[in-house]
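Field log, afternoon session.

UNIT: design team B
ACTIVITY: writing a sequence onto a fixed backbone
BACKBONE:
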């Protein structure tokens, strides 16, 4: 009875979202902002201190617009590195009501941020996950196995799908699929790009036949190019341009804010692929020139849960992402929190106009759309972006099969040195390595005008930057000049 009611509730919400307009949902979300602010200002000692230092009284903030215009911007440094957890925690939630703690990745090297999860949130977690899975994969119509390959203790709870929390064990993931995959109508893989590359390589080594199953993929932790999506699709037997085939989509979240704050849909994947085939469409929509920059990732978000701001926008309205979580019972309220990402809103009317001008007929998402340009630190000082290197690495699938996916971009006085790691157990002759160097150089160099590019391919064990790759930590793809 409980599961039947949950399915009905998911169906009703799905139908409601399909009828809604993005602007209407955003307006509904903004109405919650004032209550979120007032609770934080009265219940969080840390936030009271921040407001006092900015000279802001609670009585000064009368409208949602006042919050966005006057309240200070929070970030990891001025929040989690400054205040203790008891100062950040709202006083209306006692510590006994905390169910779990989730940390950020710590990739920035400046410490961690904490996400505190209340028992109420924990009780609702499975339902929220199941709703997201239903919206993306129709889990109420298909018996589903979710194989979770995310690291750092990230686990999923569900009342609608079977979950295998295997972490970063490619052998374990493949064993689950080989032995239990036939019990299910579809398999959903969840992991980060670097580990999914390892999983695909291992599955080919042992002869796992993915085409026996209907497979979907959720990719988190970092951005990736379309060439990587195509690489996964080729291995997993997925046709990315076929709506009836499996979906390979990304999900963006943060430990301190929440999982799956933004995600791709079939519609946004189709939009990105259309933009790559037609660079003029991408330039009209985002201002991005594919000749020198990677295509952004088009994502949707739930404005009833997350309020999105774009700060300090450039000429194309791309700026720094600020998020406010609209949960009025969150243990740690985060208002106007800077994530370190670069993002741009894609207005429905602008999207419809660009598609019409290009003579394209694509289905439009019902939720608001944004373009994610990656993290600010992924932009290279001399021009270029780390995703250009990822795109070049997967441009030639046969070559990519010989690589691990790990690589390091090093800024030098004369330009850029790109060091690439060969795959584990994939020995290379000097001639093969030289052929790969020339192919990678010729693929990437045109996108780095005015910069000298040196490419080196290392054997797996000779790749010095890979000594710490354990798939538990995010891998740093580029190293600034010292």
């Amino acid at each position: 009875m409980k599961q039947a009611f949950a399915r009905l509730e998911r169906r009703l919400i799905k139908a409601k979202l399909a009828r809604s307009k993005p602007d209407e949902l955003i307006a509904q979300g903004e109405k919650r902002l004032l209550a979120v602010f007032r609770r934080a200002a009265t219940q969080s000692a840390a936030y009271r201190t921040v407001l006092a230092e900015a000279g802001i009284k609670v009585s000064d903030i009368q409208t949602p617009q006042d919050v966005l215009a006057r309240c200070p911007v929070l970030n990891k440094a001025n929040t989690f590195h400054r205040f203790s957890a008891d100062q950040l925690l709202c006083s209306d939630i006692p510590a006994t009501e905390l169910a779990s703690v989730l940390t950020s990745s710590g990739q920035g090297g400046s410490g961690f941020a904490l996400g505190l999860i209340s028992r109420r949130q924990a009780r609702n977690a499975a339902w929220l996950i199941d709703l997201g899975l239903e919206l993306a994969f129709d889990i109420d119509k298909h018996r589903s196995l979710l194989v979770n390959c995310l690291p750092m203790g990230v686990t999923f709870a569900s009342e609608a799908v079977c979950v295998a929390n295997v972490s970063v064990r490619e052998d374990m993931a493949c064993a689950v699929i080989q032995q239990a995959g036939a019990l299910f109508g579809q398999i959903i893989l969840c992991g980060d790009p670097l580990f999914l590359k390892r999983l695909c390589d291992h599955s080919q080594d042992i002869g796992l036949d993915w085409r026996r199953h209907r497979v979907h993929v959720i990719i988190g932790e970092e951005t990736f190019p379309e060439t990587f999506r195509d690489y996964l699709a080729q291995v997993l037997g997925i046709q990315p341009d076929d709506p009836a085939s499996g979906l390979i989509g990304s999900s963006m979240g943060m430990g301190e804010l929440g999982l799956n704050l933004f995600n791709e849909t079939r519609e946004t994947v189709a939009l990105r692929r259309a933009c790559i085939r037609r660079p003029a469409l991408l330039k009209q929509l985002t201002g991005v020139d594919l000749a020198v920059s990677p295509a952004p990732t088009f994502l949707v978000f739930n404005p009833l849960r997350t309020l999105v701001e774009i700060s300090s926008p450039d000429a194309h309205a791309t700026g720094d992402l600020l998020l406010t979580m609209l949960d009025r019972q969150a243990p740690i309220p985060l208002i106007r929190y800077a994530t370190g990402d670069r993002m741009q809103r894609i207005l429905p009317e602008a999207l419809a106009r660009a598609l019409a001008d290009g003579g394209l007929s694509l289905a439009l998402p019902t939720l608001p759309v944004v373009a994610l340009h990656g993290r600010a630190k992924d932009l290279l000082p001399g021009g270029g972006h780390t995703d250009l290197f990822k795109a070049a690495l997967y441009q030639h699938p046969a070559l990519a099969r010989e690589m691990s996916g790990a690589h390091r971009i090093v800024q030098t006085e004369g330009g850029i040195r790109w060091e690439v790691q060969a795959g584990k157990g994939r020995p290379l002759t000097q001639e093969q390595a030289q052929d790969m160097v020339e192919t990678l150089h010729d693929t990437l160099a045109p996108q780095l005008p005015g910069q000298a590019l040196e490419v080196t391919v290392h054997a797996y064990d000779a790749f010095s930057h890979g000594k710490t790759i354990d798939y538990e930590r995010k891998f740093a793809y580029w190293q600034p000049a010292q």
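LOG NOTE: The chain has 17 helices and 17 strands.
NEXT ACTIVITY: expression trials, pending approval
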